[in-house]
Design a protein that fits this description.
- About 45% of the residues lie in helices and about 10% in strands.
- It has helices at about 80-95, 125-135, 140-160, 220-235, 245-255, 260-265, 270-280, 290-300, 315-320, 340-345, 350-375, 380-400, 405-420, 425-450, 455-470, 475-490; strands at about 10, 35, 40-45, 50-60, 65-70, 105-110, 115-120, 125, 170-175, 180.
- It has a six-stranded antiparallel beta sheet, covered by helices on one side. Strands 1-8-9-10 form a four-stranded antiparallel beta sheet.
- With about 500 residues, the protein is of the alpha+beta class.
Length: about 500
Amino acid sequence: MTSESENNAQEMPASDEPRKPVNERAVPIGPGDVMADKYEIIQLIGQGGMGFVYEAREVDFDMTRTVALKVLRPKAFELDPEVEKRFQQEIKIAARMDHPNIVPIYTVGKHQGNTFFVMKYIRGESLGNYINDNYPLPEGKIRDLGAQVASALHHIHKAGAIHRDLKGTNILIDEDGHATLMDFGIAKIADANTSLTSSGAIVGTGPFISPEQWTGRADQRSDIFGFGVLLYQLSTGTLPFRAADVPSLINIICNEPHEPISVARPDLSEDLGDIVDRCLAKDPSKRYQSMLQVKEALSREVPAPKAPPVKAFAKTEHLIKPKNIPTPPDRFPIPERPTSANYRARRQPVDPTEDRLSIWTARIVYSTIVLVVGWILLPKISPPTAGLLNEKLGDALETVGMDDAPPYANAFDAYRRALWLFEDSDAKDRVVAKQNAVIEHMLEQGELERAEGRYRLALDHFLAAQKLRPDDPKIRGKVDETYSLLNGERAAE
């Protein structure tokens, strides 16, 4: 709620939001202090050459209203005793103003020799920050915000005051898009960049100062020029006058034309560009003569953009009106309605042999496509089927005893075929481990049966092991030896 001349903070967040720390240079009061037995200081929110601005809580009569409290430095009145009287007179004029786009001033007082006044605490962000966050603004929004500020300036001018310090940080925009103008009246007394000013001194912020203000003269039309700079910034996001030093800036403002807003924003209407150009006229007599005129101009309905001109082409008559095209007849002949008789007459006979051949050809092609697609898609749909088959075969392996060699071998052989089909890496490790265990068990059982003279049972165990590992010479030797023993036993019988 303070201007850039009074602080470096450009935003006024709510009291419960964290604030950036302020460089407190010779701050006269601090948090917790109570001014005039009525206002409890919460925190410092800004400072400048003229004074300090605090967020405060009004504690009189158990009130909890949050206000903004601006304390002026005592040295501001040391050079000229009349300054304080003029300052208080300006505050009284401002306090009598009642406008929705002007910050209300509640009261003026003193505390330990420090003059202060109390304003409404506005929750919002500065217009400069608002432009940076939302650029480019649509023309309707530019006109709406401009009309609000123009209405506030017109109200100030009617009260006999001149703002003379228009800029983005002197205007707050709340979350509803409502603009509030601040720091009017003080700019008529206090310089934005130095501690004091006297009658006829230059006041304001460089890029917003009109040509006549650089010579110490100012009236309501000077505010119109500053408003034109503000409207230019709303439209393009930049200032119309920029320079590296003050002499160059003065020369540009007084002598050089600004760049039209259509260069940066060709989408904006010519009417808005004309309003900006008229506000920024070097000669005050060529500007709008009141802010009411500016407000009415901005409140006009936004004109529709002009359609691009249609270019004419030479020697294109033949393209527009072609020649040598026959005129269509009045009535087109109606085609003959088909009947069963003329339909049969026009139908070509078909060979029955060729008809059957084409049918079988289509069937063969269709079957081939189905087989090929099935062969391609089978591995892709196998993982769920493989998991289910592994589970079933695993249950079968667990239920078959180690002593039942042939059934166990048959189940295991089926498991191996499933493994070959589905290529499950985890199942492959399980197969290899179980296969080695089964083979060793079968060989042990075969040796026991052969030692007991049961050559037939021993041969069954060895053959089952050979089925799982057919290339093992050790197993092949045991099979051959058992065959010899079995043949010898039969010969002896």
